[in-house]
Design goal:
The protein is an all-alpha fold. The protein contains two helices and no strands. Helix 1 packs antiparallel against helix 2. It is elongated and about 60 Å long.
């Protein structure tokens, strides 16, 4: 069975928030003398994720029907 994969769309601001949160987690694990390998790999994945141009459609949720 194939491994499930998830794709999320982040703008530059959100990507930086995720990276800062992962770095905070990594620093906490270093203080606790726990292994940081999984977090390091995830930081690497997020930091070097390819960018794609996507078209954002306007929300139609407030239009009258």
């Amino acid at each position: 069975m194939k491994e499930e994969r998830y794709h999320i769309a982040l703008d530059r601001y959100d990507k930086n928030i995720v990276l800062n949160a992962l770095n905070t987690l990594r620093n906490q694990q270093v203080k606790e003398e726990r292994p940081t390998d999984p977090v390091d790999e995830l930081i690497e994945t997020v930091a070097h994720a390819p960018a794609r141009k996507v078209r954002v459609l306007p929300c139609k949720c407030h239009e009258e029907r």
